[in-house]
Amino acid sequence: MQLPLPRGPITARLFDALTRPPHAFEPAVPDSPRPALDDDDLQLALFACYELHYRGFDEVDDRWEWDPSLLRLRQALELRFERGLAEAVPRPPAVPPAQLRRALTELVAAADRDGPQLSAFLQHRAGLEQFREFVVHRSVYHLKEADPHTWAIPRLHGRAKAALVEIQSDEYGCGRLERMHAELFRATMRGLDLDDSYGAYLDRIPAVTLAIGNAMSLFGLHRRHRGALLGHLAAFEMTSSLPNLRYSRGLRRLGGDGTARRFYDEHVQADAVHEQIALNDMCGSFAADHPALTGDVLYGAACALALDRRFAEHVLARWQEGDTSLREAGLAVGLP
């Protein structure tokens, strides 16, 4: 993946530094009137910092990953991001471990009841170009699906660890390349005549979408957030089966074949099973072992639900205005 185009003073300075060998530089995170979750410059800079822990960028020296200057910048960016999350997502009260399953279920049910129904729109009303836009948004995560949550594995023990490994094993296709969920999503992209290479559309992705992936990486890369990461994954699994059924039906309505729909079809059944594992064996066992962290688990779930709601509201609002939900980056005015 190539470094994207800068979106402001933070990314301009960061990308300039990253294209040279690692060196000491004094990062600055200027104040911005924009909320952190909607700040393109902030979210892209944070995404780039995190990406060095994943596949990196072609023109960036791998030694930047743990460079002290870069870590200082990332810390400053994370402070703004965490404040933005705290302002946008009310922290649910902690509950006794035995009540965590019920609290998570109620949290998800409330979000489903009150949130915008993007999946229903994609099933019944979306045109082909709108569905392709949706897939482009989701490619930021789905092309590295499961990787952020995998950071939690070495930070757990016992039953919670075994449960997470069971979920992640399915996400990675149980060791079979053609069954890996990231590979299935690449097939969906190809079926829609989209570029399936990693990061191909990063310049088109707005802050509201980057924030979804950045929250996963924030929780995954800090041990202190391991409870939030598990709650985030649980919310993902609990809100997956029905929307993916709708996505599959919508893509079939638009002419998508079985190969293009397989990613969504796979999640309908797999995530129904993962939901129970995540609720009972993963989060339940973690809460029993760490009763003081049940509030963190619920907060991680609340962040996942709130960020997804903001994304859906953004997409639907733009479409209702007859506009694209993607950024117009440079001269890129349309999808290939």
From TrEMBL:
This is Iron-containing redox enzyme family protein. It comes from Planomonospora alba.
